[in-house]
Structures are given as C-alpha cells and as structure tokens.
Design brief:
four-stranded mixed β-sheet; 13 strands
Length: 203
C-alpha cells in the first residue's frame, strides 16, 4: 500500500496516473493519522518551499512524516518534495525543512552559467548515477528525466545518488537509508520515470 500525501502542493493526478501505468495503485492521503497504515509514502510538491512547510505543519502532516521515516519503511520525495527532505531552504529567506537528509536548498548560481541558460531549469536533462541504488535497478548510468525547478539541493556526496549538469553539477537524486528523493519528475519522464517508480514499489 502506497500513500500519496495531499497537502495542496502537488500534482496528485499525474503521479497517480503514472502508478496506474505500472500496475500499482496509490491512495491520496490528507489525514496525518493514516500514514502509519501504509508500506510506502510519496511526498510530492510543486511551488514554494515556505508555503509547503507551512501546509505540512498546519495540517499536522510534518510529525506524521517524521514518524513514518523512523519506521524504516520507504519514503520518496519528488521535486519540491525532495527538497523538503533536507534541513532547510534559502528560498524567500531561510526556512527549516524536515531534516531527514543533511543538506540545504539553494538558488541556481547564475554567475556560473553560460549566458544562454535560463532559470527555471525546465525540460529534459540527464541524471548521472553517482552510486548504486535499488531505484536504478535495470537502468543505465545516464538517465534522461524531466525537470522544472529554480532551486536545487546541496548535500554530502554520500547522500547524492544522482547529479545533473546545468551550468554546473548539482544534486538531482538523494538517498539515506529508507529516504529517497528525486528533483526531476519521474511521473513526467516516460519510460525512465516509470521504471524508477516501479523500482520504488519493489523496495
């Protein structure tokens, strides 16, 4: 049983549709008390970091996510959901995150960009696998996925399972124990994204 957290900050339909394509079902959950009933949890997210944390705190979901993480069962953050797994973000001033993976979220440093590059980073780009992960089972070491974001994660290399080049290398996938995160959108990334989601269901 997979829970898809609804806190008014994610495109739940596209994620649900992606799981249906691989023969799995997710249940949209807005009641924090229900999370513990599930085997796996997905934290999606689109929008501003501060708003997302306020929503999670306001509905009591933050504590339920932290409790679920302690259970050892798999938790996957997607896009903004991945960023929320880290300690903090610099978007609109510093905002504390869930603190499940040591690291922070920063804005793209345009001073390092070729003049042709724009923010947000939007479209298809390569994720370069940094180390083995069950989420990459049966996949190549270079995976094209779909991105839409203006801020990116920074963390120790021990937690970075994927990196992507956009002006410079940034962390695009993370893993620590039972906690996983992807900056790109697997649900919008066709076969590659569906394979990642399928691997998640098999953890």
């Amino acid at each position: 049983m997979i829970a898809l957290i609804d806190y008014n900050m994610g495109n739940l339909r596209s994620v649900s549709n992606a799981f249906e394509k691989i023969g799995s079902k997710v249940e949209v959950v807005s009641d924090p008390e229900k999370l513990k009933e599930f085997d796996k949890v997905i934290l999606p997210g689109v929008g501003a970091y501060k708003d997302a944390m306020e929503h999670l705190q306001g509905v009591g979901m933050q504590e339920s996510i932290l409790e679920f993480a302690k259970s050892g069962k798999p938790l996957l953050g997607i896009c903004l959901g991945m960023q929320l797994l880290l300690d903090s973000s610099e978007e609109f001033g510093k905002t504390e995150g869930l603190g499940l993976i040591e690291g922070k979220v920063v804005e793209f440093d345009k001073s390092k960009f070729d003049h042709k590059l724009k923010v947000p980073h939007m479209g298809w780009n390569e994720l370069f696998v940094q180390r083995d992960s069950k989420l990459f089972e049966g996949m190549s070491r270079e995976i094209y996925l779909y991105f839409v974001h203006s801020f990116h994660a920074t963390c120790k290399d021990e937690f970075a399972i994927g990196k992507t080049f956009y002006g410079y290398d940034f962390v695009s996938a993370v893993e620590k124990d039972n906690i996983y995160g992807f900056q790109p959108h697997p649900e919008k990334s066709h076969e590659n994204g569906l394979k990642i989601l399928k691997n998640f269901t098999e953890l």
